[in-house]
Design goal:
Length: 71
């Protein structure tokens, strides 16, 4: 398993609920969470064999900015 970290513009629980079904639908994602208190509105994903670009595209189709962060 790997942990992927993304910078997003998801700023509220209401917006998280819009993204939730998308993230939950990806079978390789084991866990995910947003840190809305962080200045980068960080999305952390625990997954197996997940392409960061697919997560970026998934959130972008929902109308959100998302880019992988190096940590």
């Amino acid at each position: 398993m790997e942990i992927l970290v993304f910078k997003t513009n998801v700023t509220s629980k209401k917006k998280v609920s819009k993204v939730s079904p998308l993230l939950t639908s990806v079978p390789t994602i084991q866990q995910w969470n947003f840190d809305l208190d962080d200045c980068d509105k960080v999305l952390r994903i625990v997954a197996t064999e997940l392409n960061p670009g697919s997560v970026e595209s998934l959130l972008q189709t929902a109308g959100f900015d998302c880019e992988v962060m190096d940590y």
